[in-house]
Design goal:
alpha/beta, Rossmann fold, five-stranded parallel beta sheet, two-stranded antiparallel sheet, globular, Lysophospholipase L1-like esterase, signal
């Protein structure tokens, strides 16, 4: 009996650990199910992916009505999470363009900008291996009220992503950091109550910047 209880505990423990090792499994599965019915494989596709700032951009398709937009943002994600789920969230759609927003949560999780960039490079390499013609746009980390104390680290990451983008064809850097500031001060009326995520004013700023990379 004691042996059976120990065996049961081990099975339960390692089963739970396996589930915890992929906290985004269910959310990714829901996104796949959603676009199984919405995505038209005969049309050119633009994928927006990354963390919650993309996931919560609910007006994306309406803002770019002349394009088929797939939004596979998944809240709380880091660049390493996108790398794990890249096939399901990006590659399966064989996109013409991919907009990536990662780094925000990575910095908050105390990852070094150099390490974050390394993971982003892996993501870009896999996209290029899948289709060398795919254009990739890295969206800069954004400033926010909640994480303003980390602004130096975000700016460091943005500089690294910008330089990396300049060195590679078919790769671009979309700077949303500067337009979200009034000189050196953060525009505080562009955020919702949590001080981290944006309201419609914030997304209007993003649209003004990103539309130049869509067309």
């Amino acid at each position: 009996m004691k042996y059976l209880l120990s065996l049961f505990f081990l099975i339960f423990f390692f089963g739970a650990k396996a589930q915890d090792s992929d906290p985004f499994k269910n959310e990714v599965a829901l996104l796949e199910k959603k676009y199984d019915s919405l995505w038209d494989s005969t049309k050119e596709t633009i994928v927006f992916t990354g963390s919650s700032s993309v996931r919560m951009w609910h007006s994306l398709q309406n803002m770019f009505p002349g394009h088929q937009i797939v939004n596979t943002g998944f809240g709380g994600s880091q660049a390493s999470d996108l790398l794990v789920h890249l096939n399901s969230l990006v590659l399966k759609f064989n996109p013409k363009k991919v907009f990536i927003y990662e780094g925000d949560n990575d910095i908050s999780a105390k990852k070094k900008p150099k390490k974050i960039l390394g993971t982003i490079q892996e993501i870009v390499d896999k996209i290029k291996q899948h289709n060398p013609e795919t254009q990739v746009v890295l969206i800069s980390a954004k400033p926010s009220i909640a994480r303003w104390n980390l602004r130096k680290k975000y700016k460091n990451l943005n500089r690294k992503m910008s330089r990396y983008s300049e060195e590679h064809p078919q790769l671009a850097f979309s700077d949303v950091w500067k337009p979200m500031l009034n000189k050196r001060k953060l525009k505080k009326d562009i955020f919702i109550q949590d001080g981290l995520h944006m309201n419609s004013k914030g997304y209007a700023i993003w649209y003004a910047v990103i539309q130049n990379f869509i067309n």
